[in-house]
């Protein structure tokens, strides 16, 4: 999209923060989430899961479960499509194990019964005979020569010869000559880092209600970030035509990337088909932890050279990501995002995608980027500290700008990194005095953002109000943003617009609510759909006035003649045109379908103060500031909310959250008591600064804001904790035992 | 298993139900009484999404058995608004954008209301510790805390 | 002819070349031409790639125009969380 298509300024609605359209439903308990649906004749499903990290499934005997009164169906892998290849094949293998159980919690069978309690009883009656196999859950161990092999056919052609079959994909990119660059440096630091797997931790467990008949026609209600991907995937897994499955997205209780795929949905459909009744499945929290989307755990080596004046001469990173039992760990994003904030002549990054006996990783907010940023920004912090340089000055000196050749290859378009760094330097937080025992850390972060397939439909009503159907589930207030953008184009009040998340039967394909794409892509499509409707409104006015169509323009909610030559007519308001639309050419609606390709990358800079208790090793985050480029904030309150939420999740990742596996390969902390996400008393207020450097790829300049906010916190907190503790922390999370060990080792 | 007959009060309505001895109060509210405002986020009392009050005491309804509701007064998120009129906390949560996905909101509102009834003038720290049993994964709590503090201030002024 | 910069990991599939030239006027033609000239790239392209044109990242579209004046980079397919 060309810049001249952009609205320069003078917004009337955009940039204000009105009440969200679904606010009342959400504060009264009326909003219907995944588990809030019921159907006549409904059965309850429950899943049988492997207690072993790696085991051959010798035999499954379902007869005792089937004999239990109230049990209506039992399914195993045999009830799904055979021979699926590619990503659908991996998803099916993850949804229901075939020959082998590949991790603790892997589904091996499922039952449907007349009550939840009976279904759970029946699960215990399904007899599964396992031949337990050696397992591996650590990324470095999984790459080692004698590591157990999970599957010797997963590695693709990118993997160089000589690697263990658990290394399934390989990435190598960069430019310049890093060895020559390191030779130019006054100081070179090389360090290794590890991060543990975390979970997206959405408070709403996966839930669905499925109905599928023997005629291959089905209905599915589920909590998902993308109901079209659910439709496509479920249809493939249970062997029906995509269009015969209608999927409705419930209100979604958080996703963060973890609800971009399916788990129980195809299982509920298979059970429903077999029982010929609707089946509802709701995961327990323990199932969510054991069997759904954690992040990768990582092992990383970083080497960076710097001159005394702060110039980075070369940078190199090796990123090993364990992504569970299937290919797909986002190591290429770790590699491509790691050094993106910096203008580098010599840079080299390598990534390894490694499989292990853990659940299949799922996307989590800027997948792959936070870990890489932690390692890289820690080394830069150490260089600044040893060379006695200001960490913001050094970052400004090396910052990527418009025209900089990115570490991942192409030149940057207009970007806002420098603006975030300058805002950080000017922020009172950066110059505020620290108390004894406290340390301050800063970090930059980068994320690509995404466009994706998008359809929006907009219809005007006779009374001059407007209804909009979008296909991207509203996770954080996006209905408000869509209504603001439509109000801006149509010139009618925000309150006169209702935005609905349409089901798969009523709108064309929409990509998932991921990649920070909703306000960008659905917003762009909403603007274009509104423009489409405005064109039709102008045409009706022109016909009424008897003047040419192009002699009419739209302003402030009215059609107006474009000048004295066009004729002298009073402005015609939208409601006046719609009142008689049925008799003047038919209903007026607007549509837009496209895959917009101009998401615009985004940068942020975070400042954090941390205090470490040397006796207990506990860290308190005492002050936090997020500065991020939003391009253009449509609804500033919800932009701030995205910044604050990203920071809070990053704080959890940095300090507490981790998947802990025992020697037996079983997950040891599968409830919220033991997997500790930040609670209200753990956090300070989180200050925000919205920087607006317009994205040339959006009519209003919007850049996605959802993901970038989780990229800087890991490093910013590690830098603050390292300063406070007087020792560099290289392993996340920096839980009290790890900090105490580091303090002890320091002596 | 033989079901138990329970007579209780929910949001000032007299209700009766039959439940399995193993069913929780949360199961009963959601599956038998069609009150799905309370959410199950964990089932182990760690997330607070199922918060309700029993005889005025804030509890996780996933840790209370349905049968224990006998003779008690239960209050849920559905009872916070009086008819059309929202509670000041509900207004402020919308105004402050104190929710993103909204799954934790019912539990947080029940908990916050319970706090303000006990302590009309809480400090930020007191609000944070009172709500420490209610997980929110979207907001980082900032806007939630501000909404509760500001509601408390408004309610003090109005009283 | 348009010049296409590859990420360095693809060198082994192009006989050591990190920048190749193909005849194409759209992103779709570009990918087809790459697969034709360098058959070993085909599985990589099939599994999903994005293309940066003068810094603007084209995640999936096959219809974006490309010309000899553009700076073109092949990238691994972008997705989000």
From TrEMBL, chain A:
<protein>
    <submittedName>
        <fullName>Molybdopterin-dependent oxidoreductase</fullName>
    </submittedName>
</protein>
<dbReference type="Pfam" id="PF02738">
    <property type="entry name" value="MoCoBD_1"/>
</dbReference>
<dbReference type="GO" id="GO:0016491">
    <property type="term" value="F:oxidoreductase activity"/>
</dbReference>
<dbReference type="InterPro" id="IPR000674">
    <property type="entry name" value="Ald_Oxase/Xan_DH_a/b"/>
</dbReference>
<dbReference type="InterPro" id="IPR037165">
    <property type="entry name" value="AldOxase/xan_DH_Mopterin-bd_sf"/>
</dbReference>
<dbReference type="InterPro" id="IPR008274">
    <property type="entry name" value="AldOxase/xan_DH_MoCoBD1"/>
</dbReference>
<dbReference type="Pfam" id="PF20256">
    <property type="entry name" value="MoCoBD_2"/>
</dbReference>
<keyword id="KW-0560">Oxidoreductase</keyword>
<dbReference type="Pfam" id="PF01315">
    <property type="entry name" value="Ald_Xan_dh_C"/>
</dbReference>
<dbReference type="InterPro" id="IPR046867">
    <property type="entry name" value="AldOxase/xan_DH_MoCoBD2"/>
</dbReference>
<dbReference type="InterPro" id="IPR036856">
    <property type="entry name" value="Ald_Oxase/Xan_DH_a/b_sf"/>
</dbReference>
<dbReference type="InterPro" id="IPR016208">
    <property type="entry name" value="Ald_Oxase/xanthine_DH-like"/>
</dbReference>
<dbReference type="GO" id="GO:0005506">
    <property type="term" value="F:iron ion binding"/>
</dbReference>
<feature type="region of interest" description="Disordered">
    <location>
        <begin position="1"/>
        <end position="24"/>
    </location>
</feature>
<keyword id="KW-0500">Molybdenum</keyword>
Automatic annotation (TrEMBL), chain B:
<keyword id="KW-0479">Metal-binding</keyword>
<dbReference type="InterPro" id="IPR006058">
    <property type="entry name" value="2Fe2S_fd_BS"/>
</dbReference>
<keyword id="KW-0001">2Fe-2S</keyword>
<dbReference type="InterPro" id="IPR001041">
    <property type="entry name" value="2Fe-2S_ferredoxin-type"/>
</dbReference>
<feature type="domain" description="2Fe-2S ferredoxin-type">
    <location>
        <begin position="4"/>
        <end position="80"/>
    </location>
</feature>
<dbReference type="Pfam" id="PF01799">
    <property type="entry name" value="Fer2_2"/>
</dbReference>
<dbReference type="InterPro" id="IPR012675">
    <property type="entry name" value="Beta-grasp_dom_sf"/>
</dbReference>
<dbReference type="GO" id="GO:0046872">
    <property type="term" value="F:metal ion binding"/>
</dbReference>
<protein>
    <submittedName>
        <fullName>2Fe-2S iron-sulfur cluster binding domain-containing protein</fullName>
    </submittedName>
</protein>
<dbReference type="InterPro" id="IPR036884">
    <property type="entry name" value="2Fe-2S-bd_dom_sf"/>
</dbReference>
<dbReference type="InterPro" id="IPR051452">
    <property type="entry name" value="Diverse_Oxidoreductases"/>
</dbReference>
<dbReference type="Pfam" id="PF00111">
    <property type="entry name" value="Fer2"/>
</dbReference>
<keyword id="KW-0411">Iron-sulfur</keyword>
<dbReference type="GO" id="GO:0016491">
    <property type="term" value="F:oxidoreductase activity"/>
</dbReference>
<keyword id="KW-0560">Oxidoreductase</keyword>
Automatic annotation (TrEMBL), chain C:
<dbReference type="InterPro" id="IPR003749">
    <property type="entry name" value="ThiS/MoaD-like"/>
</dbReference>
<dbReference type="InterPro" id="IPR012675">
    <property type="entry name" value="Beta-grasp_dom_sf"/>
</dbReference>
<dbReference type="InterPro" id="IPR016155">
    <property type="entry name" value="Mopterin_synth/thiamin_S_b"/>
</dbReference>
<protein>
    <recommendedName>
        <fullName>MoaD/ThiS family protein</fullName>
    </recommendedName>
</protein>
<dbReference type="Pfam" id="PF02597">
    <property type="entry name" value="ThiS"/>
</dbReference>
């Amino acid at each position: 999209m060309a810049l001249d298509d952009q609205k320069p300024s003078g917004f009337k609605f955009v940039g204000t923060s009105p009440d969200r359209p679904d606010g009342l439903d959400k504060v009264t308990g009326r909003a219907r989430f995944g588990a809030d649906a019921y159907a006549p004749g409904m059965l309850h499903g429950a899943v049988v899961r492997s207690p072993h990290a790696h085991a051959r499934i010798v035999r499954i005997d379902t007869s005792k479960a089937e004999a239990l009164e109230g049990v209506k169906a039992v399914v195993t892998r045999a009830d799904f499509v055979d021979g699926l290849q590619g990503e659908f094949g991996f998803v099916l293998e993850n949804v229901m194990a075939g020959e082998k159980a590949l991790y603790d919690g892997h589904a091996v069978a499922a039952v449907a019964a007349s009550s939840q309690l009976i279904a759970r009883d029946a699960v215990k009656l399904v007899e599964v005979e396992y031949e337990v196999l050696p397992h591996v859950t650590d990324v470095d161990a999984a790459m080692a020569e004698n590591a157990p092999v999970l599957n010797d056919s997963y590695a693709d052609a990118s993997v160089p010869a000589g690697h263990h079959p658990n290394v399934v994909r390989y990435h190598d990119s960069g430019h310049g000559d890093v060895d020559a660059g390191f030779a130019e440096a006054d100081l070179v630091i090389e360090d290794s880092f590890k991060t543990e797997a975390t979970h997206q931790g959405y408070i709403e467990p996966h839930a669905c209600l499925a109905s599928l008949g023997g005629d291959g026609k089905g209905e599915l209600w589920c909590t998902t970030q993308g109901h079209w991907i659910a439709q496509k995937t479920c249809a493939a897994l249970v062997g029906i035509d995509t269009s015969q499955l209608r999927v409705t997205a419930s209100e979604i209780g958080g996703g963060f990337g973890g609800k971009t795929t399916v788990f129980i949905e195809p299982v509920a459909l298979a059970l429903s088909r077999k029982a010929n009744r609707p089946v509802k499945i709701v995961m327990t929290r323990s199932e969510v932890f054991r069997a759904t989307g954690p992040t990768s755990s990582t092992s990383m080596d970083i080497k960076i050279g710097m001159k005394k004046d702060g110039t980075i001469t070369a940078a190199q990173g090796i990123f090993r990501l364990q992504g569970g039992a299937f290919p797909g760990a986002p190591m290429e994003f770790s590699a491509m995002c790691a050094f993106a904030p910096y203008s580098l002549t010599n840079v080299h990054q390598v990534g390894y995608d490694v499989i292990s006996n853990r659940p299949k990783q799922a996307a989590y907010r800027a997948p792959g980027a936070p870990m890489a940023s932690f390692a890289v920004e820690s080394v830069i912090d150490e260089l600044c500290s040893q060379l006695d340089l200001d960490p913001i000055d050094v970052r400004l000196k090396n910052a990527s700008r418009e025209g900089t050749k990115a570490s991942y290859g192409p030149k940057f378009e207009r970007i806002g990194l420098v603006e975030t760094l300058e805002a950080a330097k000017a922020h009172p937080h950066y110059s505020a005095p620290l108390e004894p025992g406290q340390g301050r850390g800063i970090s930059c972060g980068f994320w690509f953002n995404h466009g994706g397939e998008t359809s929006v439909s907009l219809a005007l009503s006779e009374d001059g109000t407007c209804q909009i159907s979008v296909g991207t589930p509203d996770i954080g207030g996006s209905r408000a943003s869509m209504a603001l953008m439509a109000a801006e184009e149509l010139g009618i009040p925000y309150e006169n617009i209702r935005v609905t998340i349409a089901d798969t039967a009523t709108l064309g394909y929409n990509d998932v609510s991921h990649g920070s794409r909703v306000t960008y892509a659905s917003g762009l499509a909403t603007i274009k759909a509104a423009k489409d409707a405005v064109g039709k409104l102008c045409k009706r006015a022109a016909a009424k006035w008897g003047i040419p169509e192009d002699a009419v323009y739209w302003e402030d909610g009215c059609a107006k003649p474009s000048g004295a030559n066009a004729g002298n007519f009073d402005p015609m308001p939208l409601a006046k045109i719609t009142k008689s639309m049925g008799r003047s050419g038919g209903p007026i609606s607007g549509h837009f379908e496209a895959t917009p390709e101009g998401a615009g990358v985004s940068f942020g800079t975070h400042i954090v103060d941390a205090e470490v208790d040397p006796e207990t090793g506990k860290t308190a985050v005492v002050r936090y500031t997020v500065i991020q480029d939003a391009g253009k904030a449509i609804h500033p309150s919800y932009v701030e909310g995205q910044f604050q939420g990203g920071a809070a999740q990053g704080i959890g990742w940095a300090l507490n959250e981790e998947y802990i596996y025992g020697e037996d390969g079983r997950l040891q902390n599968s409830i919220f008591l033991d997997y500790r996400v930040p609670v209200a008393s753990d956090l300070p207020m989180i200050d925000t600064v919205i920087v607006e450097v317009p994205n040339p790829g959006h009519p209003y300049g919007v850049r996605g804001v959802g993901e970038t906010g989780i990229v800087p916190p890991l490093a910013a907190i590690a830098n603050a904790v390292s300063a406070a503790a007087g020792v560099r922390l290289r392993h996340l999370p920096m839980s009290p035992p790890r900090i105490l060990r580091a303090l002890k080792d320091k002596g | 298993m033989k079901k138990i007959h329970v007579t209780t009060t929910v949001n000032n309505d007299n209700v009766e139900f039959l439940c399995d001895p193993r069913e929780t109060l949360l199961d009963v509210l959601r599956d038998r009484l069609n009150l799905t405002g309370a959410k199950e986020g964990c089932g182990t009392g760690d997330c607070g999404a199922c918060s309700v009050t029993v005889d005025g005491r804030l509890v996780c309804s996933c840790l209370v058995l349905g049968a224990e509701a006998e003779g008690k007064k239960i209050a849920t998120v559905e009872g916070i608004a009086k008819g059309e009129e929202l509670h000041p906390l509900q207004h402020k949560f919308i105004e402050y954008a104190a929710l993103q996905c909204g799954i934790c909101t019912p539990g947080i509102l029940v908990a916050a209301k319970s706090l303000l009834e006990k302590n009309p003038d809480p400090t930020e720290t007191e609000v944070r510790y009172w709500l420490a049993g209610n997980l929110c994964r979207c907001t980082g709590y900032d806007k939630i805390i501000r909404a509760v503090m500001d509601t408390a201030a408004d309610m003090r002024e109005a009283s | 002819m348009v010049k296409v910069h590859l990420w360095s990991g693809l060198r082994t599939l192009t006989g050591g070349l990190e920048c190749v030239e193909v005849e194409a006027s759209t992103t779709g033609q570009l990918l087809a031409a790459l697969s034709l000239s360098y058959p070993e790239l085909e599985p990589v392209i099939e599994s999903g790639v994005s293309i940066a044109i003068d810094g603007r990242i084209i995640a999936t579209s096959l219809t974006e125009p490309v010309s000899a004046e553009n700076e073109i980079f092949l990238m691994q397919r972008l997705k989000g969380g």
